[in-house]
């Protein structure tokens, strides 16, 4: 995954990927250590977005990091969150389904990025990523003892 992602970024592609659903800080296991390496690789050239999932807590009337979502750790510079809890979407044969996870949140960010690229043509890939992060809502996400300031799409 690491080599393939770097190769895609070097070819001018932007990589948007789910952070994972293990409720850990990125870097706490072998798989997520590779994400840290990828996020901090000079070869990525600012073309990586790692997406965590949020949920809306009706009892407190606020958005929170989903309990299962991995947390940014040393990837804060390329970590963004988006709604990823109980998201309804289409499946085959004109049916609908509800799903949760960072893999559900990542396409929301990808869609926003695509709209941004259409609205502001001609930028370099890393400039689109920077613009997306600068235009995202800033929000404090509380997760147990940890407090994160996150960009929320």
List the helices and strands and how they pair.
Layout: H1 2-10, E1 15-18, H2 30-39, E2 48-57, E3 62-65, E4 79-83, E5 87-91, E6 95-99, H3 102-119, H4 125-135, E7 137-143, E8 146-152
Parallel strand pairs: 1-2, 2-4, 4-8
Antiparallel strand pairs: 2-3, 5-6, 7-8
Concise synopsis of the structure shown:
This protein has 153 residues and is an alpha/beta fold. 31% of the residues lie in helices and 31% in strands.
Written description of the protein model:
By secondary structure, the chain is of the alpha/beta class. It contains 4 helices and 8 strands. The chain has helices at residues 2-10, 30-39, 102-119, 125-135, and strands at 15-18, 48-57, 62-65, 79-83, 87-91, 95-99, 137-143, 146-152. Strands 1, 2, 3, 4, 7 and 8 form a 6-stranded mixed sheet that branches. Strands 5-6 form a two-stranded antiparallel ribbon. α2 (30-39) links the parallel β1 (15-18) and β2. The longest helix is centred in the last third of the chain and has 18 residues, at 102-119. 31% of the residues are buried.
Distance between the termini: 25 Å
Largest sheet: 6 strands, mixed
Number of helices: 4
How many strands in all?
8
């Amino acid at each position: 995954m690491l080599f393939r992602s770097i190769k895609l970024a070097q070819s001018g592609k932007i990589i948007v990927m789910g952070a994972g659903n293990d409720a850990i800080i990125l870097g706490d296991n072998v798989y997520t250590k590779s994400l840290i390496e990828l996020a901090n690789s000079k070869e990525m050239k600012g073309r990586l977005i790692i997406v965590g999932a949020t949920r809306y807590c009706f009892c407190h009337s606020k958005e929170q990091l989903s309990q299962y979502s991995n947390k940014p750790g040393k990837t804060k510079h390329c970590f963004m969150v988006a709604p990823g809890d109980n998201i309804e979407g289409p499946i085959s044969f004109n049916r609908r389904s509800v799903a949760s996870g960072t893999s559900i949140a990542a396409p929301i960010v990808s869609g926003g990025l695509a709209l941004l690229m259409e609205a502001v043509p001609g930028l370099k890939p890393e400039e689109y990523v920077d613009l997306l992060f600068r235009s995202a809502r800033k929000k404090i996400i509380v997760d147990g003892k940890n407090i994160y300031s996150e960009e929320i799409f």
